[in-house]
Every structure is written in structure tokens, then in C-alpha cells.
Amino acid sequence: MNNRFFSSLALRNIKSNRQLYIPYLLSSTTIITMFFLMVSLLTNKFVQERSSSLPMMFLIGAVVIGIFSFIFILYTNSFLIKRRKKEIGLYGILGLEKKHVAKILFFETVFTSVLSIAAGLVAGVIFGRLVFMLLNYLLRLPIDIAYSTSLLSAGVTAALFLGIFGITYLYNVSQFTFANPIKLLKGKQEGEKEPRGSVILFILSLIFLAWGYGISLTIPDPLSALSRFFFAVLLVIIGTYLLFVSGSIFILKAMKKNKRIYYQPGAFISISGMLYRMKQNAVGLANICILASMVIIAVSTTATMFIGAEETLENRYPYENNLSLFGDPENIGAMNARFEEMQEQAREETEAAGLQVEGIESYRYLNMFGRLEGEEFKFEQSSPGSDLPVFMDVLPLEDFNQMSGNSYELADDEALFYHSTGTYSEDELAIGGQTYKLTAIDNEFSANMALTESIALVLPDVSHLERLKGAFEQQFPDNTFSTIDVKIGWNTTGSEEEKRAFGEAMREKYGIGRVSATNYESRILQREEWFSINGGFLFLGIFLGLLFTIGTVLITYFKQVSEGFDDREKFQIMQKVGLDKEMIQESTRSQIVWMFLLPIVIATIHVIFAYPIVRKLLLIFGVTNDITWLLSFTGVVVAFAAVYWMIYRVTSRIYYSIVQ
Predict the structure, then answer these.
(1) Which residue windows are transmembrane per the record (predicted)?
(2) Is residue 431 part of a domain?
(3) Which domain holds residue 67?
(4) Cα–Cα dist 167/154, whole Å
(5) 162, 190, 218: which is the final residue of a domain?
(6) Which of 97, 310, 388, 422 is the most exposed place for a label (fewest CB within 10 A)?
């Protein structure tokens, strides 16, 4: 017998089992499309240009989808091969050797994998372009976001799924290699043994979940959150699968032991049915839970960024006009004179444009970084190892009082002190060879101080800044970046058009490269681009949410169909022994409600514990309002629950039609 015979037989098998293969091919194609779209976003121009952290986050998403794809295809394939065991056993009875059956399965795998991968890549290109066009039309962003992909993305997708389908082939071959034909002939008629509840797996699930939650709850700063986010996600995914596989069995067995609950007609049927199929059921529930978590996080975070765009713009540009002056490292006196001159110049430029100054803030500051060791701040020139340094802003008291509206007074050995993490509780701090007595104050500085561990130190006058600068340069004589710089911010009267014209004139005169050691930024000029960026993030969030929701629909449908086929013969037998249809519907409804509620509840818990790490990540993009995120989170959970309820209603009808 040659390969042509086996390939023809494989095609005939696929056609005769199309009731099983069509859902399998559709689900495989959809999951391949999801992964291909995620990988394509890694090379998207918007993702590459808007934030250095976005490619890393989408890489994490691609890895998570890849893991999910592996589990999902193995899950759907196990359902397929289970229903074909009788057919495979018949081959052995008719005289085909196991190597011949392996060849048939090989060609079946080749045909289905090539078709699924090709269809998934084509669907990814078409779906990506259509959804990007639709979202661009609905959101009306100033600049359209284009969908793009590459041969590399297609190659990575094809390679991954060829590997996954190869593993499914090995799994399928193993199902008949170690079984005799008579046993295979029983096929799906052979019920599953009651699963054993593993205490070890249950404890491991709690350990993995607690570990992942602990990373989120104890993450020190946003930059650390970015690097540890993937590890936390991976731990929660592993913990979720173990929890559903082991924890659900413990709960069901506990319910079975409770006679008052178990010995009720509906409960007896539903608990027994779910317990015997819980291993397969648990994988589906865990997949839905993970996808639901992705939808909630992706859409709620990007919606928060878009809703809070004005607030983040004001955090980034505290005044309508923001002028920076970079000090001369060799001539501090000239910089101080220029400090006074630039404030006056800002007023003159405003009045020359026919506008009036409304509130002006100016201050000198010195940036440096180092380590807190005991009661001493030790300078560092660069960050050693993987740990980030402590960043310090040093301001003179005169400028701090002017910018904050306070009237503090300091002796020569006193300082005002703010620590972003609040972990430094000493009364004194030694820095640059001098010890200062500290008075703690609230954060009246930049919102960016929350990005990493930071210190603000207010010293008696600018001469202390000069002395610290000198001490730093003495320790690092080759450093040329230690300068005392200036920030000047002010608002103006006038209409939006007048302010925009003034901003354009100032940017032309004082922007980067216009005047030595200055930079001008206008909030009004940045607003359109800022909302475009945040709108783009919302665009990506909706796109990913839609993608993950489709995955949820797919796996819920496949789960209902597979359970329907598993339950049909059992309920037909129950009807023959006197169980009415109303009782069947009541018992099946409890199973489906279990499937509906459990993933969304666990997903909500996951997102609640993910809040600290998500909040830190949002700080990178300038989002500081917790209420905005809470409202977005609540709205997305309610909206997704409503969509999920509709999925439940539709798929439950499919289940009932199969069972009955």
C-alpha cells in the first residue's frame, strides 16, 4: 500500500467525519488567526513608535496566546480523537497494522494543519484590515492606524502551529499504540473514571496563585512592574489551570459527600455528571477564565488611558507653556542670572503677543541618583546590575516656597524631605559630606516621582545645590552631565487660537535646537497628538478585547458541543428509565450556570489582584487617577458579563438540542 492510498483514505475519513472536523477546523483556524494578529501587532508602526514598553507588552501577550493555543488545540483534538476511537479500533479488526493507522492519522494531521494554518493566515490579514478600518471609522482618530504584517509574523505563526499539530499527531498515535482494538471499539462508550482530587495539585495551585498575586501586591515601582509582569501572568495562568483541575474536584466531592445536597434528583445528576467529566471540563473553564481576564485588563486599561487623557496631559505639561533651561556646568553664576532673565523674558514674550500671564512657576533643580544606605545617600554614576538607582531631585527653599505657596524656613543643617515609597523613616540624611535634619512633606513635585523610587530634597538655598554638585563631580570627575537646571511654567489669557499661535511662536524661538540649552513645550500644541496616542491605545485595547471575546465564544461553543455529545446517550438512557425532560433541563441548567459563573468570578478576582501591577504600568503612561480605572474596570466587567451571558444563552440552546 502506497502513500496515495493512505492519503485518499485520510481525505475520505475527514469528509465522513465532517460533523466533527468542521468545528475542529474552524476552532483551529480562529486560534491561529488570533495568534497571527497578536504577532502582527509587534511589528505595527503605531506600537513601535508610541512607547518603548508597548512591544514588550505585546510580546507578553503573544506568548500567553501561544500557550493558550497549545492547550486549546490539544483540548479540542482530544475531543475529536475520543469520538473516533471506535473507527480506529475497526481498522485493527480489519487487519491494518498500527503503522498503517499511523500513516492515515499522519495525512489527516497534514491536511487539517495545512488547511487551518493557511486559512488562519488569510483570515488574519482580512480580519485585521477590516477591523482596523472599522475602528478607525468609529473612533474618528486624527490619524488612522494602519494594519500591517510581515513574512516574519507569518513564518513564526506557521512554525508554532506546525509544532503544535505535530504534538497532537503524537498524542493521537499514542491513543491506539498502547490499546488493543477491542477496547478501542468501545470508543466513547467507555466512561471516564471518577477523577482523584490531588491534594498536591490543589496546594500547588494556591501557591502559584499566591505567588503571582504577591508579585502584583508588592511590586515597588512601574519599571519593575514592566519586567516582572510576564512572570506574574505566567504564574497566575498555571495556578488557574491547576485550581480548576484540582480545586473543582474537591468542591464537587465535598458536595457529593453532603447527603442533603447530593440526594436530590437534579443535584444527583448534575454533580455526578460534572465530577466524571471534570478533567476535560476544567480545561475549558480555565481557558475561558484566562480569556475573560485578558479582555477585562486590555479594554479597561486602555479605556482608562483614553478617559484620563486630559489629566495625564496636565501631569505631563503642568502649565500651558513649559520652558526648560539647561544649566552651564562651568558657570553657575551665569545660570542663576539667566534664571531671572528667562522669567522676565517669558512675561515680555507673553505681553508682546497681546496676552497676559496667569500664574507662573519657576524653580531651579539638581538631578542625581544613588543609593540609600542607612542614613546616607551615596552617589552613583550609573545603575549597577539589574537594580534601579534611587533618583533624587534637589531644590532650593526659595524656589520651593514660591512654587508650592508655602513659607517654610530652614536652618543651614535642615532640609525638607519626600520619599516616594515612604520606606525611609530616619530623622537625618547624610549627603555629599553634610548631614541634614529632615522634615517630611507631601509630594508637591512631579507625578513622575511615582515611576520609581525617588526622593525630593529641599535645601536652604542654591549654594547647597552647588556644593552637592561639586561633591558629585569630585567623586566622578569625568561626569559632564551634572547641571543645575531650570523649569519655568506659565498660563496665559486669550482664546484657544491665540494661545495656539503663541505656542507656535515660542516653539519656533525656544524649541530644541533653536536657542542653546533651552526647550519649549506647549500643552495646547501637544493635545491633539496626545489624544491621538491615547485614542490609539484605546483602539488596540478594543481590538484585543474583540479578539479575546471571539476566543471566548469559540471555546464556549466547542465546550457546549463536546459536552452535549458526551451527555446525549446518558440522558437518553435516563429518559428511558422515567426521567422527564423538565428534570433533564433542570440538571443541565445547573451545569451550564456553573460553567457560566465560575470563569467570570475567578477572572474578576484575578483582575482585582492584578490592580496594583496594572496601576504601576498605567503610571508609565501618566495615569494617576484610581477612580477612573475603577469605573472603567466596573464598566468593562459588566459589559463583558452581558456579552458572556448572551454567549451562554445561545450555546446552551445548542447543548439542549444535542442532548434532547
Answers:
(1) 21-42, 54-76, 104-132, 152-178, 199-217, 229-252, 284-307, 537-558, 592-614, 626-647
(2) yes
(3) 1-190
(4) 20
(5) 190
(6) 422
